[in-house]
Design goal:
The chain has a single domain, classed as TIM Barrel, CATH 3.20.20.100. 37% of the residues lie in helices and 12% in strands. The protein binds NADP nicotinamide-adenine-dinucleotide phosphate. NADP nicotinamide-adenine-dinucleotide phosphate binds next to helix 9.
Length: 276
């Protein structure tokens, strides 16, 4: 498994697992838990969830999936912006910990920027680290200007920015990714297969056929190519998890990358950060 290093030295797998849209349908629950467990067995031990997902039910499902193997997992959850204040963040965190059945998060993120000042969120996150409730913290959906503001506002401990980044959403390459690399902050790339839409793309299909891999494997290997980017695909069944896992063994050649650049061109100018 390829790895990515957080600023504090912690190494995590470059390929993790998402959980948005899980726990929405009782009939799929067993498959979703089996998918997460099989991913953990394969080494995709970073699991991303949020208090928002299925109104907390996704965290409960993840808690069930990691029961008995919690210590092997790098557990990530996120707080709503309105909960990221001095008064509310510790309550939101406690509620997430309870649903997840654990005593600490490996990483806690601000889900997106809201009305609470970034400096206040940074302070509230720092308190949670001191209390041992979270091991590190970061943000999500923050563009380069927001990141610069955060770092200037006592946010230098920010461990990551989780953003929409995939072959069809290369905007962050213009300024956000270079900014993060300069500050040694790795990226978590969400929706790395564009919520499944990339998997029907004919140009990607041609390239994947030439490489001898599936479309998902090529899209994920591309997202992880820099060594500073963690891909967190969501897969609701074991077959998709196995398919995705093989992306961690796939090294794209210079020719492969050139074909992908031709089919999915990098940005020529600044593109405001998109979010889903
Ligand atoms: N911070 C944020 O604001 C934010 C926003 C969006 C997402 N996220 C996080 O990022 C994770 C991933 O993003 P996402 O769920 O939006 O989209 P995604 O991972 O790009 O796509 C998920 C979709 O792709 C399908 N899929 C995955 N692997 C496949 C494979 N090998 N073959 C065929 N289909 C496959 C899944 O189907 P099945 O379920 O049938 O396997 C699902 O429909 C989320 O789950 C969440 O944890 C964060």
């Amino acid at each position: 498994m390829k790895t990515v290093r957080f600023p504090d030295g912690c190494l995590v797998p470059a390929l993790g697992q998402g959980s948005w849209m899980m726990a929405e349908h009782p009939a799929r629950r067993a498959d979703e838990i089996a998918a997460l467990r099989s991913g953990i067995e394969l080494g995709m031990t970073l699991i991303d969830t949020a208090e928002m997902y299925a109104d907390g039910e996704s965290e409960r499902l993840v808690g069930e999936a990691i029961a008995g193997v919690r210590d092997q997992v790098f557990l990530v959850s996120k707080a709503y912006p309105q909960n990221a204040s001095r008064d509310r963040l510790s309550h939101a965190c406690e509620a997430s910990l309870k649903r997840l059945g654990t005593d600490r998060l490996d990483l806690y993120l601000l889900h997106w920027r809201g009305a609470v000042p970034l400096a206040e969120t940074a302070e509230a996150m720092t308190r949670l680290v001191a209390a041992g409730k979270i091991l590190r913290w970061g943000v999500s959906n923050l563009d380069a200007d927001d990141m610069a503001e955060l770092i200037a506002a006592d946010g230098a401990a920010c461990a990551t920015d989780q953003i929409l980044y995939n072959l069809a959403r290369r905007g962050p390459e213009h300024d956000l990714l270079p900014w993060l690399t300069d500050h040694s902050i790795p990226v978590m790339a969400y929706s790395p297969v564009e919520q499944g839409r990339l998997l029907g793309n004919p140009r990607l299909g041609e390239i994947a056929a030439r490489i001898g891999a599936t479309l998902a494997q090529v899209a994920l290997a591309w997202t992880m190519r820099s060594g500073h980017s963690i891909a967190i695909p969501k897969a609701g069944n074991v077959a998709h998890v196995r398919d995705n896992f093989a992306a961690s063994q796939l090294d794209l050649t210079t020719d492969d990358l050139a074909s992908l650049d031709a089919a999915f061109p990098p940005p020529r100018q600044r593109v405001p950060l998109e979010m889903l």
